[in-house]
User: Fold these one by one.
Assistant:
Number 1:
Amino acid sequence: MNKVLTHKDVLDHLESNATIGIGGWGARRKPMSLVREICQSDIKDLTVVSYGGPDVGLLCAHKKVKKLIFGFVSLDVIPLEAHFRQARQNKEIEVMELDEGMLQWGLRSAAMNLPFLPTRIGFGTDVLTHNPELKFVTSPYEDKESFIAMPAIKLDVALLHVNKSDEKGNTHIIGPDPFFDDLFARAAEKTFVSSEELLSTKELGGKDGAIFNRFERSLVTGVVHSPCGAHPTSCSPSYGFDIQHLKEYSDSAKSFNDYADKYMNKSHQDYIESVGGIEVITKIPLPQF
Amino acid sequence: MSDSISLAEICISQASKAWQDDGEILATGIGLIPRIAAGLAKLTHNPDLMMTDGETYLISEPSPMGKRDSSADQVEGYMSYSRVFENLWGGKRHAMVTPTQIDSFGQTNISVIGNYDSPKIQLLGVRGFPGNSINHKNSVFIPNHSKKTFVEGEVDMVSGMGYKNKELSNGIFEIKRVVSNLGVFDFNGKNNCMQLLSLHPNVSVDDVIANTGFEIAIQSDSITSMPSNEELVLIREVLDPQGIRNTIFGE
């Protein structure tokens, strides 16, 4: 079994109008090399599901987003995501704005093959006002309480970035927080992972490594070797987020051409060279709060 | 020492009191002043509080602001985002946050300013505010008390619920304390209206009224009590030795 693909190969599994989920959180462990590949393709009108960071912003800047299902979009060190803001303020995208726990519930519901999961979260807020498609369900038990029936968020494709993988799609996320990547994988028809390291199964470390295996290889359709593939987001414990680059990226919202000329429409290898190379990126310290 | 007490230090001291009766729960202070305040609460009136390092671990002592040797942190537990959600759904948390807008119902907004379908300013998105507000108590720190933050009518996009819908939270919804650059408040006035508890030095009741977009009750117009010497030592030498707090009001 060999699931190793190139960045370009992944595009064969993606169509315009698809619903894609992107793992990571804010400016952390985003599959940015895969996101850049989409930006450089003809694919458009995507519905994007994300705990959003520059993945969402970059797709917005390339006019790839029809609809965003989200709880927030942020670059962490730069709280507001300039490209997302611009797209939203220019009315370029539809949104389904949810509490970040509701978003998890939607993914979990899809992961469990359930049509919905009940929650109180959202009551008393304009999340309900602006998502009139959300319906309600009454407890069949004595309490008879009413809940929001958070619908399953089914994904055509999930894109994740991991620390290690073998050719079969046995992946390790060794940063301390796996975020909700496992649920993205379970909610998706197909999951593609980009990986810092591509190793033999033996090199994954047996029992000691297996605790970092957050979801089964049967969920993984393809593996792309992508050293520093999360740049400019962080990939703990290997590198932190590139604050200088995030600033340059953020400032480029006003005129994106200079940024695009410098960093887009390149192979992953050329992109990494354009931002300083692997040696420089892997020296970026992890953020401290 | 007391001659040079800063407004930031007064706010930190007052904000820390939000957690004093909470027992063993997760204290989350989001932003500079709330975070130092949560640390101060843990080091003074509520040592049972749980607290994170700002990332993924629960630590035994609050971490100081600014650069530190995080390998020296005494880690006592794990608090990934998934665990944060599990914890907050169970209600064992009290967060202090800084919404962009708050209204007379205690409803908060961090989503958009202006019309939702055509936002004047897109902010973060609702993040965890709907879930936080319906599942556990919250407090608020506002560094720029004005009619733009304490708004007339309702906030532009209700991200955190308010007292008008309290029954939907099984009675859990509560804004415990509001600390601003002008004074200290809670929502324990008649019909849960916001009420003034104390005024910071050199602030008048008229200043507060003129800068608040809705009617408030005046429970007291006394001057906010100053941080104790113990609190000042903890703030200055333990929690924020680099003085990062001074940036919040340009002190």
Note: Chain B has a mean pLDDT of 96.
Number 2:
Amino acid sequence: MARDLAIDLGTANTLVYMKGRGIVLNEPSVIALNRQTGEVLATGREAWQMIGRTPGYIVAVRPLRGGAITDFEITERMIRLLLQRVGVSRFTRPKVVICVPSAITEVERRAVTDAARRAGAADANLIEQPMAAAIGADLPIDEPVGNMVIDIGGGTSETAVISLGGIVALEAVRVGSFDIDAAIQNYVRREHGIAIGERTAEEIKVAIGSAYPTLDENQAEVRGRDLMTGLPKTVLLTPEEVRFATEDVISSIVASVVRCLSKAPPELSQDFLVRGMYLVGGGGLLRGLAERIERETKVPVKMSNVPLEAVVLGAGHVIEHYEALKNMFMGARR
Amino acid sequence: MSTGIVILIVAVIVVVAVGLGRRLRRRAANDGVDSFRRQIDALSPEARKPTVDQVKSAERSNGDERADGSDVA
């Protein structure tokens, strides 16, 4: 008998929670394929290490962008391989709950559930990421009080107001931490004339990226390919430059939080001033982001204890209490 | 005679149908209340604790396996 699964199918990482066991898989959502034969060469961390470093016949891709499936067939193969790794076979078909961005279209929803069913799931249901994040972050969403969660993922940023187990207000933008990486890549190319890969851009973000000035500001040495000469070149990048490069993306995320706040009913709005808002997701780890949101909204912002695992933990809780919580699936509420 | 029996049968059917309908409607209303209560109970911190504890204990036994190869100097 298969154990039921909860999957956080993120643009950046895929996490799998197995009923009764906890988180059994946490890997980048990347797949490496042989371009000629279409054969899968690697998935997860192994494939992630290949990004930007492959010979011509290998391609390492992220099959999800902006939280949506960009290549259905590749996503299905990736899900199938990941499920195989956690023990799902042709004979053990578990029930699966998948976390998806709340803003995905009906067509995208169907693509995700179809991909999971074809990959071996007996039944696939979807749950909104901010709802799962709020459950996983241990917010008191069972009470009639305003709980606000900001989930910043690789491809989407979602803010939701939740009370009494339901979403009261929601705001989502298809902008996330990959857009911050892309902005850094573009800036370095434009201002310093060197080309860097997406992994290097991510490393710059982790090393010196910030959304608000911080106390420990260090420069970073960045190595790339000179666009004029084609030779390797090293440049120094400052945190102010990175803030300038990523300003548009950060502003767009902060603006969506402000829009969500303005949608909340007044009775719940006053709760935020006392209880604060909770940041989850890998993008929420960007230095100074909590301070920046706090400064612009005048509402306290707190970091979840489990920012990277909150979504899959929440979905895991739903799979543990499947019958009681099945009303929370997308499409179940009327 | 036969007309009387038919009317009686129809009346019995109507009474039974109305009774059944009322009972079903009451049960449906209670189902809504029960299902909402079950949902809220399942979302309580006490109900969520075992899920979080399970993951924490698994993390403790596995150690921190999160690795990221960041090497920007």
Note: Chain A has a mean pLDDT of 91.
